[in-house]
């Protein structure tokens, strides 16, 4: 259970790692190989990250993270 008044992080460390790989220009297939998961899982996680951040594309998610110095 989260402590009251303590904000939960919007992105997990795994989310940030995924975005960092996308920021380097890796394809979804290459990201999947790096993270040892299926491309389908990478697509689903990317969509979840976008939804959580309120953006529509993975590029916007990368920009969001970069502007906050997460990647």
From TrEMBL:
Superkingdom per UniProt: Bacteria
InterPro entries according to UniProt: Sig_transdc_resp-reg_C-effctor (IPR016032), Tscrpt_reg_LuxR_C (IPR000792), WalR-like (IPR039420), WH-like_DNA-bd_sf (IPR036388)
Residue runs in coiled coils: none
Key words of the record: DNA-binding, Transcription, Transcription regulation
Keyword presence, Ion transport: no
Pfam families the UniProt entry points to: GerE
Residues covered by the HTH luxR-type domain: 8-65
Keyword Metal-binding recorded: no
Protein name per Swiss-Prot or TrEMBL: LuxR C-terminal-related transcriptional regulator
Lineage, highest ranks first: Bacteria, Bacillati, Actinomycetota, Actinomycetes, Micromonosporales
């Amino acid at each position: 259970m989260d402590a009251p008044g303590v904000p939960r992080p919007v992105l997990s460390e795994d989310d940030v790692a995924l975005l960092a790989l996308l920021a380097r220009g890796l394809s979804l297939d290459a990201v999947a190989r790096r993270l040892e998961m299926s491309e389908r899982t990478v697509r689903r996680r990317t969509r979840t990250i976008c939804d959580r951040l309120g953006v529509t594309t993975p590029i916007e998610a990368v920009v969001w993270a970069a502007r906050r110095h997460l990647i």
